[in-house]
Design a protein that fits this description.
Helix content: over 70%
Structural class: mainly alpha
Low-confidence stretches: none
Oligomer: single chain
Shape: elongated
Radius of gyration: 19 Å
Strand content: under 5%
Number of strands: 0
């Protein structure tokens, strides 16, 4: 957690944005713990509430958008290429796709 503290205290709101975006994209950054820590820093008057909320929201939104874009662009390719190594065969992937076509809108 110490590197996260350094990023937040050094880069402030830009660091919050970056940490949350990178954590949601997939790097091992504890997003929820970071948010709790940010609440503590706001309570201690080391950061302002509104800029923290904006940076957290925008960082999360950018992280989700980039994650979606990466999955949409490279997801099936990577699944077909590396999936069999972890038991995800082409047949299983097609089975899941067929299931989503039938009942996916309800789930």
């Amino acid at each position: 957690m110490e590197p996260i503290l350094v990023w937040i205290l050094h880069y402030k709101y830009l660091g919050i944005f970056g940490l949350l975006a990178l954590g949601i994209i997939g790097l091992p950054i504890p997003d929820e713990s970071t948010l709790v820590f940010l609440g503590f820093l706001v309570h201690q008057h080391k950061l302002e509430l509104i800029p923290v909320l904006l940076a957290a929201f925008l960082g999360s939104a950018v992280g989700m958008s980039v994650s979606y874009l990466l999955g949409h662009t490279f997801g099936l390719y990577l699944l077909h290429r590396f999936g069999p190594r972890v038991g995800l065969t082409r047949g299983r992937v097609e089975q899941v796709h067929a299931w989503f076509e039938r009942v996916g809108k309800w789930t």
